[in-house]
Amino acid sequence: MQIPTLEEIRALHREHAPTREALDLVYTHCEIVCGIAEQLLARTGLDLDPDLLRAGSLLHDIGVYRLYGADGRLDRPDYVRHGVLGHELLRDEGFPEALCRFCSRHTGMGISRDDVRRQNLPLPVADYVAESGEERLVMYADKFHSKTEPPTFVTAASYAARVRRFGDDKVAAFALMGERFGAPDLDPFVTAYGHAVV
Description:
It is a single chain. Helix 2 crosses helix 7 (about 135-140) and helix 3 (about 50-60) crosses helix 7. The longest helix has 25 residues, at about 20-45. A hairpin with a 5-residue loop joins strand 1 and strand 2 (about 150-155). The protein has helices at about 5-15, 20-45, 50-60, 80-90, 95-105, 115-120, 135-140, 155-165, 170-180, 185-195, and strands at about 145, 150-155, 195. The chain is mainly alpha-helical and about 200 residues long. Strands 1-2-3 form a 3-stranded mixed beta sheet, with helices on one face. It is globular and about 40 Å long. The protein has a domain at about 5-140: Hypothetical protein af1432 (Orthogonal Bundle).
């Protein structure tokens, strides 16, 4: 599989970002998630493809750009769609399915077809659940940074409290990932990016 270079990934972000502010928000988040994922991979020594992990991390949120309106505002009520939109965007750009899946498989602790039906989500009824080790690690690393206004780093305890509203099964899934991958050291990222920790 041909994995895009960092410059090709940056160019794709620049091409699809509707504004400089959107690019800064989304690409910076993707860089942070990539850094966290690489830190955790180095600590665990798991046999995962570091190049695929890096590309998946840097592309996982590219669908967010498709949620910006002509007024430059993000459509927050439909935010849950950003993963599916990113999957479509990368597929339309000719990327392999293994890369497209990072977009549609990272939201929350995974979205099952039962979640789509029960919560009446604006998504095609399907399972959007991470399967490969690389997909799981990107999904997990993503939980430690939020694109809120202003952006923040998120502790494991804070994320567990947030995800509880979606069910105890989501809390349990997050705890299992924590056992597998460990908790990241957020201090270097806080120093580098200056975002607060919640």
